[in-house]
Amino acid sequence: MKQSHQAPKGSPLRWILGGGVVLLVVIGVALAAFLPVWIVQWLGGKDFQKLASQQVSSLLQTEGDFQSLEWSSFSVYTPGFKSRPGTSGPWIWDFQDIRTEISPRLLLDRILRFSEITIGRLAIESGSSASIPREASAAPASREGSSAELFRDVQVGKVEIRDFQIVPSPKTSGWGAKGILAQIKPSKQKTDFTFQHGFIQTPLNWLGEVSLVEAKGRYVEPTLFLTELLLKGKSGGSMDMSGEVTPGSTLQAKGRVSWEKWPIPGGKIGVGLFEIPASMSGEFILQEFRKDGPVGKGQVRLVDARLEPGKGSETVLGLLGLLTGEPRLRGCPLTTAKASWFMQPNAYDITEIVAEAPGLLRAVGQIQIRGQGLSGRIELGLEGDLGRKVNALTGGECFSRLENGYSVQSIQISGTMDSPRNDLQPKLTAALTRTAIRTGAQILEKAAGAQGSGDAAGAAVNVLKSLFGPAPK
Questions:
Q1: Tell me, what's the pLDDT at 138?
Q2: What CA–CA distances, in Å, run from 222 to 86, 216, 245, 290?
Q3: Which of 300, 295, 293 is nearest to 258 (CA)?
Q4: By the number of CB atoms within 10 A of the CB, which of 11, 160, 202, 274 ranks highest?
């Protein structure tokens, strides 16, 4: 009888395949266990630190280094990033206390994503040159070969800077910032930003340092759009700005500025005619920005304005007060005080000037400013009886024209911003001198009992009368 031989139930091939599967599973588990460890070690090593320094340097057009990177899982902290001393580039950067997390899900796709980056402090100051070529700043990274090509894309969800600073310098025209909270949301299409709190430092002595309430806007290359900038002054006034700026060989800019109860530059205005302490409200429309400065037009109105003669009563108003004896000319509120102006580089045209204390004084006219030089014409009206009194004291030289209940005098403005002049002040000064001498002569005549002859006192009276004529009726 022939015996049949049956093959064993498990063939060697199946055992081999099964063992291979088990081995792959073991290897996969091992890789899954050790891959995060390897990634974290690599991210915390010198190679990644150097690569990150090169990438950030290229982005910021500087040459700088990160301090050591401390990783905990996929969270990272570094004490900071700084531009190297003496480096070239438009700006010098100093980042402090940087914290962030990366997305491990995207690492295998060679995408480095930071959902949020927080920066304790960022200080920026002007650099030693206008720019540094991107090719030059990126050159060290290109020498790394595969390291430079490690990531296909770098994505940032949000950047928060808790203390943003700009150091004032000639490059910033003296402007600066400190203590500002900044939030930036970059994307491929645009970058949105919000700035809050802190202070803006200005080069204007009369303006000084102002508080930032909030600034919002976006950057869409190459244009910066400012949707709102709200400032507060030391005295409580507010200022609101908006506009857009496109840098280039010719800067393009337009925008709008409005303000409420803002301090007047220098505290008072008046160009030698009078002094008006007040705050101001108004707006300015920026139409364009030329090589030498801005071009635009605006309107301003004075708030809580008061008409005063000024120090030493040397202004036209002070002289009018002395001549007439009218107490209101020594200080009174203005119910209307406003003007319009057009601005271009090194030139201001102030038009439609109106200042009025009803029933007492009214001034209308226009003034031109070229550099520091002044020119212009003001029609100054006094209440009818006061105008007639001044007209008599000046021998009919001034305030001889009647308009709408006012005695009106045309005044020519000249001189400079620091030393304004007008053609009315000499006439009033002469009238005041004549009045004082006549008054003195009358006192002298009464005291001596003289009638114009026979003694020294009478001779003096005759001399004074011959010089200045009889007193006006």
A1: 43
A2: 29, 17, 9, 18
A3: 300
A4: 274
Dig out the tokens for 227 from the structure: 């949707």
Exposed / middle / buried, residue 364 (Cβ in 10 Å: 0-12, 13-18, 19+): middle
User: Cα dihedral sign for 80, 81, 84, 88?
Assistant: negative
Please give the angle made by the CA atoms of 421, 424 and 429, to the nearest 5 degrees.
95
List of E strands, 197-303:
199-201, 209-220, 223-232, 238-246, 252-269, 276-290, 293-303
Is this model's pTM higher than 0.85 or not?
A: no
Domain boundaries along the sequence of the chain:
270-423, 434-473
Name the CA dihedral angle for 125, 129, 135, 140, rounded to a multiple of 10 degrees: -70
Contacts of 44 (CB under 8 A, 6+ apart): 69, 70, 71
Q: What is the pLDDT of residues 427-458, one digit of tens each?
A: 888 887 777 666 555 554 555 554 444 454 44
**Per-residue pLDDT tens over the stretch 191-229:** 899 999 999 888 777 677 889 999 999 988 888 899 999
* 177 vs 211: CA distance, rounded Å: 10
DSSP H or E run through 455: none
Distance separating alpha carbons of residues 419 and 350, to the nearest angstrom = 18
Q: Which residues pair with 145 in a beta bridge?
A: none
pLDDT at 467 over 70: no
What is the DSSP annotation of 106-165? HHTTTEEEEEEEEEEEEEEEE-SSS---HHHHHHHHHTTGGGTTS-SEEEES-EEEEEEE
Contacts of 89 (CB under 8 A, 6+ apart): 60, 61, 62, 63, 83, 127, 128, 129, 131, 132, 137
Written as six digits, the tokens of 247 are 């840098």
